Amino acid sequence: MNGNFQGKAGIITGAAGGIGSATARRLSAEGAQLLLVDRNEVALKTLVDEIRALGGECDFAVADVSEDASVQAYVAQASNTFDRIDFFFNNAGIEGPMCSVLTFQEADFDKVIAVNLKGVFLGMRYVLPIMVKQGFGSIVNTGSIASARGLAGSIAYTAAKHAVLGMVRTGAADLAGTNVRLNCVMPGMVDTPMLRKIIHETFDGDLNKGLKGMGSVSPMHRVAQPEEIAAGVVFLLSDDASFINGVALPIDGGTLATIPYNG
């Protein structure tokens, strides 16, 4: 690792998940100080212990990103601990039920929107004023290939991810002249606990069949590993991406570029 984040500090939400934890490990290895945020306290503490054992500097906050007070608290913790927020990986999300719009329940819709859309907005809402005041900062939101096209059986997830892309583009325009950058990544199918849960529900628990089936939508003929998504996130957060703003970066093995998703 090249140490691009020496002396820098930031926040990762959804830190205990597949993409979040891979990004935390990568950023820590490059010298970043981290506040790791997740609602899963056990998994979060395990990750923190792992990073600290390797010499990394990190703290943690157990939080519900869909609750205003909870978001304010983790942002204040980061600001007070580090006295700055250089970067923010606004990553927390849930998949929701896999079912048709004909049977999707209102309560499930509200829950997915609360985490995947409202949670992203609230994170931006409280981190951005700090970044604007300090005169620098970089945020990466987690979108999805579902930010760019429909995915059958995931009406709430797709709606939220479309909106995340809209917030990135609008937010970048709102932040003109502030030296704060706002981008998002659009992962395709990634081998994470979230994807494995979907495979369990839709491929009768056959993991190999599920990974092969999910990977078949990409011309790479495989799903991504979390570390491959983390590499794109870390690049966008870094000074190497200093003139990249308002961008949605597909990290999908070419899925959006070449193969229409057929549901």
Characterise this structure.
The protein has 263 residues and is an alpha/beta fold. It has two domains: 9-188 and 225-252, 3-Layer(aba) Sandwich (Rossmann fold), CATH 3.40.50; 191-223, no CATH class. Helix content is 47%, strand content 15%. A seven-stranded parallel beta sheet has the order 3-2-1-4-5-6-7, with helices on both faces. Helix 5 links the parallel strand 5 and strand 6. Helix 3 (68-82) runs parallel beside helix 4 (106-134). The radius of gyration is 18 Å and the shape is globular. Belongs to the short-chain dehydrogenases/reductases (SDR) family. Keywords: Oxidoreductase.
Topology:
Layout: E1 9-13, H1 18-29, E2 33-38, H2 41-53, E3 57-62, H3 68-82, E4 87-90, H4 106-134, E5 137-142, H5 155-174, E6 180-187, H6 193-202, H7 207-215, H8 226-237, E7 248-251, H9 255-258
Parallel strand pairs: 1-2, 1-4, 2-3, 4-5, 5-6, 6-7
Helix pairs in contact: 1-8, 3-4, 4-5, 6-7
